[in-house]
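Thread amino acids onto this structure.
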């Protein structure tokens, strides 16, 4: 038998926000490492597209549940449909830019409801329903905006991710006695369709990329590989940690 502590073979994983970006890449990479995945997101067509990308497209082992995790009834339905799982990637989130003087109560509620409250409340429901196996790993997708980096216009987004990162540490401490590990990844800017479609100017793009010592933005699969590590047995003694994946952006 080939020795590989980074393998996910035999593990059942929940991946939220799996309809695009980091969530989609995580589903694909985890399946390639042997995991069975349960995908969730708000758009059924995009979940089907993710499912079609999975290398081992044995639909008996990979499934999806359409759900808006900002809604309590959808979270409850998702948890009810889940099998016992060995890991969860709580990745679903939204971004918004606004100068401080334009922050409103509604915009704060919208961001925190998705980025902070939804994963916290989903964790509560997973635990109450005993869906997380002993030894399970939970990975939260935060951001360098919720770790050490600041930028004009990202105050409320950064605050929502900072709150999530803080929660992760408390969860790691409380759940250690159950053998459940909790960690967070903090990506820098990742290549997105918005960038690919050049909806920002070439000059702004060059200037922003120049802030990254490695000279480029990250790719979704590069974050997915880090998430897969935290889900694997290779990270069995890692909990309460923040893994920064930003091409060196935090150094400048």
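Threaded sequence (252 positions):
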């Amino acid at each position: 038998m080939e020795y590989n502590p980074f393998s996910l073979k035999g593990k059942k994983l929940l991946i939220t926000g799996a309809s695009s970006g980091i969530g989609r890449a995580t589903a694909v990479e985890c399946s390639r490492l042997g995991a069975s995945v349960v995908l969730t997101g708000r758009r059924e067509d995009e979940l089907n597209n993710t499912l079609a990308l999975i290398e081992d497209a044995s639909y008996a082992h990979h499934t999806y549940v359409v759900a808006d995790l900002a809604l309590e009834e959808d979270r409850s339905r998702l948890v009810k449909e889940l099998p016992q799982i060995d890991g969860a990637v709580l990745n679903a989130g939204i971004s918004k830019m606004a100068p401080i003087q334009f922050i409103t109560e509604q915009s704060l509620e919208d961001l925190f409801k998705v980025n902070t409250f939804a994963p916290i409340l989903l964790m509560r429901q997973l635990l109450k329903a005993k869906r997380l196996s002993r030894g399970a790993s939970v990975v939260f997708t935060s951001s360098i905006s919720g770790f050490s980096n600041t930028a004009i216009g990202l105050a409320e987004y950064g605050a929502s991710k900072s709150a999530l990162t803080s929660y992760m540490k408390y969860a790691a401490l409380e759940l250690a006695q159950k053998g459940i590990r909790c960690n967070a990844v903090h990506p820098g800017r990742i290549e997105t369709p918005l960038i690919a479609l050049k909806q920002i100017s070439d000059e702004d793009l060059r200037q922003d990329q120049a802030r990254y010592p490695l000279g480029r933005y990250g790719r979704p699969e590069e974050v997915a590989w880090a998430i897969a590590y935290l889900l694997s047995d290779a990270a069995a003694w890692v909990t309460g940690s923040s893994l920064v994946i930003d091409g060196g952006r935090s150094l400048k």
